[in-house]
Amino acid sequence: MNTARHLTVTTTAIAAALLLTACNPHHSAPLEHGTVKKKRHDAATSTPVYEDRYRETNCRTVTNALTLSGISRPSTTGGSGSRMSTGGSSGGVSKVKPGSPHKLDKNNSSGPSGGSGSRSRRVCDRQYLGRVQTGVHRTPEAWKVLIAKGDRSRWKPVTETKWRKIKIGDRI
User: Fold this and answer.
1) Which residues contact 85 (CB under 8 A, 6 or more apart)?
2) Would you write out the chain's pLDDT as a tens digit for each of its 172 residues?
3) Is 55 helix (H, G, I), strand (E, B) or coil?
4) Measuring CA to CA, which residue among 42, 50, 96 is closest to residue 74?
5) HSE (side-chain half, CA atoms, 13 Å) at 52
6) What are the residue ranges of helices labelled H in the chain?
7) Which residues pair with 129 in a beta bridge?
8) Mapping DSSP to helix (H, G, I), strand (E, B) and coil, where does residue 93 land?
9) What span, in angstroms and rounded, lies between the C-alpha atoms of 147 and 153?
10) Residue pair 172/36 in contact by the 8 Å Cβ criterion
11) Measured between alpha carbons, how far is 51 from 45 in angstroms, rounded to an integer?
């Protein structure tokens, strides 16, 4: 398809889509006026924000492509054959998650042959240390009224003063 024809088809499709949305009464502007059906007040909330902390453990330099992909890794020490203990009484087994491979080892990135040798990476596991609170997410108070007109309705935010004056059934 040449460029002029492609542009014409695209322009025609956009014009048709705009015409359909302009003629459809359900896609008009948000409802601003109507009859108050319900009132709602949402109190202010403060939610703590947490971050998990880890430390690198069991670091090693690997050169094998199979080991780099994470398929073949030595198991952790501590008694159990699994990589992670799941809660409860762990019996001295620490929670260890596999880490992602880190930066290339600068000292061993190209072999003595001059470049096409195997690449080495430093790979570490991550040990879970705990959770630390890093902040607080605050949500302010909100006053809303549900207005309806015909088959349309929406929650409209209002000021506290207006919310206290409005009664259910009022037209705004």
Assistant:
1) 91, 93, 94, 95
2) 555 555 565 666 676 665 555 555 555 788 889 999 999 999 999 999 999 999 999 999 888 655 555 554 554 444 444 444 444 444 444 555 555 554 444 444 444 444 455 688 889 999 999 999 999 999 999 999 999 999 999 999 999 999 999 999 999 8
3) strand
4) 96
5) 7
6) 3-23, 65-68, 160-165
7) none
8) coil
9) 6
10) yes
11) 20
Measured in residues, the chain has a length of: 172
Pairwise CA distance, residues 62 & 120, whole Å: 5
Burial state string for 107-131 with b = 16 or more CB within 10 A and e = fewer than 16: eeeeeeeeeeeeebbbbbbbbeeee
Query: pTM of the full predicted structure?
Result: 0.42
CA geometry: angle 78, 62, 100, nearest 5 deg:
70
Q: In this structure, what is the dihedral angle of CA atoms 131, 74, 101, 53, given to the nearest 10 degrees?
A: 10
Alpha carbons 134 and 151: distance in angstroms, whole number:
45
Contact 36, 168 (CB under 8 A): yes
